[in-house]
Amino acid sequence: MTAHHLILVRHAQATHDLFGVQDRDRPLTERGAQDAESLGEKLAAIGIDFSGAHLWHSTARRTTQTAQAIAGRLPSSCVVHGLDALYDLDLYGILELIRETPDAVKTLIIVGHNPAIAETCRHLASDAIDGPIARELMKGYEPGTTALFTVISDWAGLSPNTATLGTVLHP
């Protein structure tokens, strides 16, 4: 069985609540836009074949902007898809979404929101809590934080036993 790559991204820094602007419409700050570009560069340089990768993101403005910046650094064969449900999904909803991913998808990138993204990462890394990378992840999950996992099962078999945390990136 071929290993899969799962990359979980918290959107980059967004503006604080703005009067008259709904939460879904909050954009990235200037720093957040720069961080999203930096994150895209770092992902492109990590040595994963992103050909045919799927990049799914919440349809909130800040996650869409983060996803677009990342996708701009990946091959054009990367499938980018906005999912309304990612705005409200919790840990269990994200795990269910991932487990329903077609096995033909070898690399899946999800750009979402806290606390769900951080909780999903911590859950999947829970078997490696004593490792230095996992300890770093447990400290916090600031905007733009990205966790890369190798999954040694099909997507349906995703669990802390089948996911290995490889690295944590910060913009």
Automatic annotation (TrEMBL):
Signal peptide: none annotated. Transmembrane segments: none annotated. The keyword Hydrolase applies. PANTHER family: PHOSPHOGLYCERATE MUTASE-RELATED (PTHR20935), SLL1549 PROTEIN (PTHR20935:SF1). Coiled coil: none annotated. CDD domains: HP_PGM_like. This is Phosphoglycerate mutase. Pfam families: His_Phos_1. SUPFAM superfamilies: Phosphoglycerate mutase-like. Keywords: Hydrolase. The keyword Transferase does not apply. InterPro entries: His_Pase_superF_clade-1, His_PPase_superfam, Mito_Ser/Thr_phosphatase.
